[in-house]
Amino acid sequence: LKVLLIDGRNMGLGLLLLPAVLALLCGREAECTDPDIMTNAVYMTENTMILTCNLSANSFVSGHRWLKGGKVLKEDKDTSNIMTYNVSGLPEEGSGQYICEFLTTPNVSKVVNVSVSPQVHHYKATEHGNEGDTGVLTCKSSSFPPVTDWSWYIVSPNGVEAIGNGSSDRYVIKSSGNQTVLRIHNLDIENDQHDYTCNGTNELGAKGDVVHLHVRSRLAALWPFLGIVGEVVVLVTIIFIYEKRRKPDEVCEDEDSATGALKSNSGANHDTLRQRNSN
């Protein structure tokens, strides 16, 4: 559907009909994506960017609105046909799909993609697991566009080896969008305690990160209990030795006390007998 403006006399009529034409195309009082909105994105620094939307159609604008993920980022009542937004936090949380919306009748908008290569990070730098249990390693990417392909590698003294769902019955990989999870069943302290690399790829490139898996012995859970038992044994031994060394000394002291008491009683009896004889 085209509006032909033949001369100046029809110009005013054409401008009046423009909102009605947009209403027919998009639905009355509804939003639509206007092909007459030109977009531009310019990096100011490595972490910041300015987005610009320019409405080329001669339409009355009562304001602007910037959105991302359904959340309003900025809104004003400026009547200009140009609107801008400063993006920060690149290349991770700043990336994504932004919508510039012109408040007209009806509102018209356009999507502006801020795309970067994957920004892959491990969930934990070191994951722990016990022998015989299942180890879980997780990596994620918070950037846009989403990762389209995830891959895992094991880094051992023998080199780097790719891990796939079919490479071993013990390995299970589940990836969805911007997250990937590697599960290793029946952990072995000799064969599984290594570094693992997760790699994410999208249309703009690839990036990875490293996760270390520490496998504990089956007896690891008993070490705290065995430590407590050892402390109790040492304490009881010390008390026993102390008591054993203390008892002979106490016996000697008791014998000396008894001997002194007998001598004292004997002397007292002797004095009493002498007094009786003198009488």
UniProtKB/TrEMBL annotation:
Positions of the Ig-like domain: 35-117, 118-216
Start and end residues of each stretch annotated as Disordered: 256-279
GO molecular function annotation: D-mannose binding
Entry keyword set: Cell membrane, Disulfide bond, Endoplasmic reticulum, Glycoprotein, Immunoglobulin domain, Lectin, Mannose-binding, Membrane, Receptor, Signal, Transmembrane, Transmembrane helix
A GO cellular component entry from the record: basolateral plasma membrane
Major place of residence: membrane
Biased composition (Polar residues): 262-279
Pfam families reported in the protein's UniProt record: Ig_3
Membrane-topology annotation of the record: Single-pass type I membrane protein
Keyword Glycoprotein recorded: yes
Ranges in a coiled coil: none
UniProt signal peptide: 1-32
Subcellular location(s) of the protein: Basolateral cell membrane; Endoplasmic reticulum membrane
Segments passing through the bilayer: 221-242
InterPro entries named in the record: Cell_adhesion_signaling, Ig-like_dom, Ig-like_dom_sf, Ig-like_fold, Ig_sub, Ig_V-set
Domain of life per record: Eukaryota
PANTHER family the UniProt entry points to: NEPHRIN
Protein name: Basigin
